[in-house]
Structure formats: C-alpha cells, structure tokens
Amino acid sequence: AQSVSQHNHHVILSEAASLELGCNYSYGGTVNLFWYVQYPGQHLQLLLKYFSGDPLVKGIKGFEAEFIKSKFSFNLRKPSVQWSDTAEYFCAVEGTGGSYIPTFGRGTSLIVHP
Amino acid sequence: EAGVAQSPRYKIIEKRQSVAFWCNPISGHATLYWYQQILGQGPKLLIQFQNNGVVDDSQLPKDRFSAERLKGVDSTLKIQPAKLEDSAVYLCASTSKGVGRGELFFGEGSRLTVL
User: Fold this and answer.
1) Which terminus, N or C, of chain B has the lesser number of Cβ atoms within 10 Å?
2) pLDDT along chain A (114 residues), means of 10
3) pLDDT at B12
4) Cβ distance A25 to A5 under 8 Å?
C-alpha cells in the first residue's frame, strides 16, 4: 500500500518569500505524482503532475516540483509567493503497479501575508 | 465545460439517521471517485468506479456506506446509519483518462455534520 507524508502542516510567509513544501511517499514501484491546491472557498484543482521524463516539472502560477526518486520525494517550490497563493496544498501519489488509487497527504495550509 | 456537480452542499443530521449524496461527473469521464475528507486531514478514497463497475472499495465501511453508479454516469453515496465520526466533506472526482495517469477534477464537496 502507498502512503504520503507532508511534513509542514502550517506555513506562514510574507509576500516575496520563497516557498518549499515537503512531500515524501512510500511505495515499492513506479509512481505518478501530483500537487493539488485548494484556494479558500474553491474546489481542489491540479497544480502540477509528474508521470515520467524530466524530474523537474513546472505547473501553473510559477510553481514547480522536483521528483527525487532516491529520496522518494516530490517537493513543491515557488521562488516568490504572493498573497493569492494562500491555500491548502495537497501532495498525491498514484502507484502504477495496481489499481492506480490516488492517495493524498494530509495537506499543508499556507498563509501569505501581504 | 461544466465541472463536477455535487449536492447537497451542506447537510446536518443526527446520529443514526441516513443521508445520500449525489455526484454528476464531467461529461465523458469514465472514472469516478468518492473521497472522505475529515477536518485537518487529506482526502481518503472511499470508492473508485470505472464506468458503472467498482474498481476499488477496500476502504469503504460497507456496514454503513454504500455507493452506486447506475448507467456509468451519475453516482450516489449513502450513509445509513450515520455516526458522529462520519462528519466530513465528501468529495466526488472524475477523470477522463481511465484508471491511472489522469488529472482528477473535483466537485465542491458535500459537507456533512452529524450531531
């Protein structure tokens, strides 16, 4: 069975600060990796995804994530956050060796102060 | 393109009562998921459908939860009888890519409060 750990549950930053949210997963085979975001009052939506190829993936709104296979990690980064980035961020992993069940981490609440 | 529709948005019931949630996925999306999201936690998969067949329901508490997807389109999730610990947001999601490799499109969720 797969599992996902997000180590930062609450992050508070000032605008223009850099962001890195940690995500580690546990699974013995090949995985698909995702970051989803939920802005206040809105539904969950995809931020970026990794299936294969270049381990550095770029998503919407200037976000990027790097897959490090040896560390079972898929950390999310943004060089300069904005107030509008205030949201909940969820890392998700999907093992490709079985029924492709998308498993989510518990999420990180990001608050950006203007 | 219309998104995933869910209803009701909010429901308050007393324990031991029953409740049903409805989901209409994006047109043409064959795969449908129901997730339970308890406050402070990430979404937990309850059941996964491919068309009108169940792919995985291993985490569905079958003594009280049931779900169906008739005709491979709309889906209903039922809880009977409800317990206090069922208080959560129930999320429906769909994808066009079949099982695996697909971005999930989520509805706004149905928030259940059990008193």
Assistant:
1) N
2) 89 97 91 94 93 93 96 96 97 80 93 95
3) 98
4) yes
Look at residue B99 and tell me whether its pLDDT is greater than 60: no
How far CA A98 is from CA of A16, A19, B63, in Å, comes to: 42, 33, 26
**Residue A70 touches chain B, beta carbons under 8 Å:** no
Cβ-based neighbours of B61, under 8 Å, separated by 6 or more: none
Look at A102 and B104 and tell me if their CB atoms are within 8 Å.
yes
Which residues 6+ apart lie within 8 Å of A74 measured at CB?
A23, A24, A25, A33, A35, A50, A65, A66, A67, A68, A91, A93
Whole-angstrom distance, CA of residue B39 vs CA of residue A32: 26
Give the Cα separation of A103 and B85 in Å (integer).
21
Q: Single out the residue of B39, B55, B41 nearest to residue B87, CA to CA.
A: B39
Instruction: Say whether B9 sits in a helix, a strand or coil.
Output: coil
- Give dist(CA A1, CA A4) in Å, integer: 10
Inform me whether the C-beta atom of residue A101 falls under 8 Å from chain B C-beta atoms. Answer: yes
CB contact under 8 Å between B103 and A34, yes or no, is yes
